[in-house]
Design goal:
Elements lengths: L2 H10 L9 H6 L19 H9 L11 E5 L4 E6 L13 H20 L2 E7 L15 E7 L30 H10 L5 E5 L2 H19 L2 H9 L1 E3 H7 L4 E3 L2 H8 L5 H5 L4 H15 L3 E7 L4 H20 L3 E4 L11 H11 L6 E9 L16 E3 L1
Parallel strand pairs: 1-11, 6-7
Antiparallel strand pairs: 1-2, 2-4, 3-4, 5-8, 8-10, 9-10
The structure holds flavin mononucleotide.
């Protein structure tokens, strides 16, 4: 939230206060919650935990971090989904959760390669769940030492990649060569395409803006996000997942009682209105979009889409671009049905083809990393 918006909120609440001094700002940055980004893998000697230390930095819906890894030994493990970390309102079939697990597996594989190992990944060893995820494992993982490991340049971007929800620079068009690289890095298991201008760009800006507004207007869906908001350093450190609203500025608003879960949920409040305004502004400043389609919606296709999204996001970082998934129009709940239909009319290759990811692209200043639970909290041993 910028200062102009802050003044608007403060004015609306009849409260005038300074948005924190420098001393306050420096004590408001979470430390433990961001630690997993510092020299990942350095805590461990074995290749499995070293690779997993990078995998937990994967993008994933609402930063739920639903991964649980059952460690067998230094080179073998089984990936499970924590069924307590699903998003039943906005992701009723856990399609996006599985995409996030695909992102995790791609980072795992890249990190293994960087250490000289090939990651063998057996998907759904006990069968693919259908409508609902169940206790069956997502993937069996094993690491095999490679005599001549292939270079993987995308790995160099892992710590620099961050989802960026800010407005993008509308004076800077997305380079056509960069857009082409995003499509080709996705790999053969999916179909990835993009746009950087013209009518389709303008239409997608409006569609993603309106779909997000529809989410704001669907109380159960929006409440799911509000319940996962971590407001201020204390909440972020206690639960380094969900949607973190941190920094001196937002924390000052929270201390002043201006930024609260109740106000965010109240359509008559200025916090709610400003939330919509900020989200509108982000969507309308998109300078490009990239989308990832699969020919069906099997769980394995969702994993493939996640692996492709991970690669695209890393390539975007290498090209100096920033990204934000704009998933609302792809979600499978009633309020989204018209947007879902439109986005498939525009972007699907034919009947049955599924748009799994849609993300906006552009140039903006980096936003820094988002919180993560430490690897050890996501491991099951013995
Ligand atoms: C399948 C999927 C869907 C996502 N949808 C959205 C979205 O609609 N809006 C958004 O701002 N971020 C979305 N994200 C990004 C996550 O919120 C983000 O990855 C997570 O908060 C962790 O932050 P990081 O990517 O900066 O590490 C999505 C990520 C995935 C994998």
């Amino acid at each position: 939230m910028n200062r102009r918006k802050f003044l608007k909120v403060a004015g609306a609440g009849g409260v005038i206060l300074a948005a924190g001094g420098i001393g306050f700002a420096t004590t408001r940055t979470p430390t433990a919650a961001l630690k997993p980004w510092q020299a990942p893998g350095s805590l461990y000697k074995d290749p499995m935990r070293r690779a997993l230390s990078f995998a937990i930095l994967a993008p994933n819906p609402h930063n739920r971090q639903p991964w649980v890894v059952d460690l067998k030994n230094d080179t073998e493990a089984v990936l499970h989904c924590d069924l307590g970390r699903l998003l039943p309102e906005t992701d009723p079939f856990s399609r996006q959760i599985v995409i996030g697990l695909g992102c995790f597996l791609e980072l795992f594989s890249l990190a293994a390669a960087a250490q000289g190992y090939r990651a063998n990944i057996g998907y759904f060893p006990n069968g693919q769940p259908s409508e609902n995820l169940d206790q069956r494992p997502i993937a069996q993982l094993s690491l095999v030492k490679e005599a001549e490991p292939a270079a993987e340049p995308l790995f160099a971007q892992v710590l620099r990649r961050h989802t960026n929800r800010h407005p993008y620079d509308t004076a800077r068009a997305v380079d056509a060569g960069a857009l082409q690289r995003l499509s080709s890095v996705a790999g053969p298991a999916v179909w990835a395409r993009g746009t950087n201008g013209g009518k389709l760009l303008r239409d997608l800006r409006v569609l993603t803006r309106d779909a997000m507004r529809a989410e704001f207007g669907t109380p159960e869906a929006y409440q799911e996000s509000i319940d996962l908001m971590r407001i201020g350093r204390g909440e972020i450190e206690a639960n380094p997942d969900g949607i973190s609203l941190g920094g001196a500025f937002l924390e000052t608003l929270s201390l002043a009682g201006i930024l609260t879960r109740e106000k965010l949920a109240d359509p008559t409040s200025s916090s709610y209105q400003i939330g919509i305004e900020m989200s509108d502004e982000a969507a309308m400043s998109s300078m490009g979009f990239v989308w990832i389609n699969t020919q069906d919606n099997e769980r394995s296709a969702q994993i493939a889409a996640g692996r492709a999204y991970m690669r695209i996001a890393l390539q975007a970082t290498a090209d100096g671009l920033v990204m934000q998934p704009m998933s609302q129009a792809l979600q499978e709940y009633a309020a989204m049905a018209p947007y879902y239909k439109t986005v498939h009319d525009w972007l699907a290759r034919g009947p049955g083809d599924r748009v799994q990811m849609l993300a906006r692209l552009g140039y903006a200043n980096d936003v820094g990393p988002s919180p993560r639970w430490p690897l050890k909290s996501r491991l099951k041993t013995g």
